[in-house]
Design goal:
Strand content: under 5%
Number of strands: 0
CATH class: Mainly Alpha
Shape: globular
Distance between the termini: 84 Å
Low-confidence stretches: 39-63, 69-90
Structural class: mainly alpha
Number of helices: 15
């Protein structure tokens, strides 16, 4: 054989072997990356226990213990009544136009999350509700509830929409232990407080229920007015949030979408439509996932918190899953908690 041809053949063989080695290395890295993510997901799923939920139930006192701003003094209908205090877009879609809006909302929702993705994220979710309903926290129930709120996950850029979904699910996952818990585990009181607009019903218990663990009679009453058009539906039957999966998800989305001054809505924060005023700026409250935690559970802000860190970690994981960057303001360590006047 011609020495030159031999050298060329040898070079080609070496080049081919190198290519194969590089391909094998890439495949190994990809498999390792996927295995690592699944292991992380499984580890997170298994890490939730009754003890975690018990600690979370204690946080519900601070999270939803703040009555509407005007309740302590002279009642203000604008702040007490969600249908007036919240922006028009924050209310559930009226039935007259719900069909068209629901179809549009469902199409947009399907662009960022599908039932298959839902099943992958929450493989160990609660499969049977208080009334025996199979798969209480199903994707179908979530999607059906989302139709009632046309602007939920539908405002802002695509990255902001994906980021908002990651934030919303991060809070719900922590509240329910990965959608394993339907109601607050440890209930030591009724969560009934004096409120002229939304008075508690004797003998009824307004402890945390549903994906956002909605608590207190005034929150049940406000959501009931917005969702059912009648505050008494849930004031008289708070147990409905543990038996009606669509309404249960609706309570979480309503809480997410509705501003309760001086707190903005979590939706406006994540969609990029809220900017801090002078008071929020002085309190280091800036747009981002951290502020949504301050809105939902202010007791975890203004300090390093193990419970808060869990939410940060879940948010980070979900952002990666949905292909979105985390954005700025991802924690509330340096934020003044809502309800406090000074650091």
């Amino acid at each position: 054989m011609n020495p030159l041809n031999f050298l060329n053949l040898k070079s080609n063989v070496i080049f081919a072997v190198c290519c194969l080695l590089m391909l094998a290395q890439c495949a190994t890295f990809r498999a390792s990356e996927m295995q690592s993510w699944k292991a992380s997901r499984d580890s997170w799923n298994s890490s939730y226990s009754g003890a975690v939920r018990q600690s979370e139930s204690d946080e519900a006192v601070q999270r939803k213990g703040q009555q509407p701003a005007a309740a302590a003094k002279k009642p203000s209908k604008q702040r007490q009544q969600p249908s007036k205090g919240a922006k028009q877009s924050d209310k559930p879609s009226p039935s007259s136009s719900s069909a068209a809006q629901g179809q549009h909302a469902e199409a947009l929702l399907g662009e960022i999350i599908t039932e298959e993705m839902w099943d992958e994220l929450f493989p160990n979710r609660l499969r049977r509700g208080a009334d025996g309903e199979s798969d209480f926290y199903s994707f179908t129930a979530f999607a059906e509830a989302a139709k009632r709120f046309p602007n939920f996950l539908h405002e802002g850029s695509e990255v902001q929409r994906r980021r908002e979904l990651a934030a919303f699910l991060a809070h719900l996952s922590q509240e329910t232990g990965g959608f394993r818990y339907l109601e607050q585990i440890t209930v030591t009181r009724s969560y009934s407080v004096a409120n002229k607009e939304y008075p508690p019903v004797e003998g009824k218990d307004y402890h945390g229920r549903g994906p956002m663990q909605l608590s207190y009679n005034y929150n049940y009453g406000q959501f009931s007015s917005a969702y059912f058009g009648d505050k008494n539906v849930l004031l008289n039957n708070p147990e409905l949030l543990a038996t009606d999966s669509v309404a249960s998800f609706g309570s979480a989305i309503w809480f997410w979408m509705t501003a309760q001054p001086p707190k903005p809505s979590c939706h406006d924060v994540m969609a990029g439509s809220w900017q801090p005023g002078s008071m929020d700026a002085d309190a280091n409250r800036v747009p981002g996932f951290g502020l949504t935690l301050n809105i939902i559970n202010a007791s975890q802000c203004g300090k390093a918190s193990e419970h808060a860190q869990r939410r940060y970690d879940i948010y980070d994981r979900y952002c990666k899953y949905f292909g979105a960057t985390k954005g700025d303001g991802c924690d509330c360590i340096n934020q003044l908690p809502y309800g406090k006047k000074s650091f």
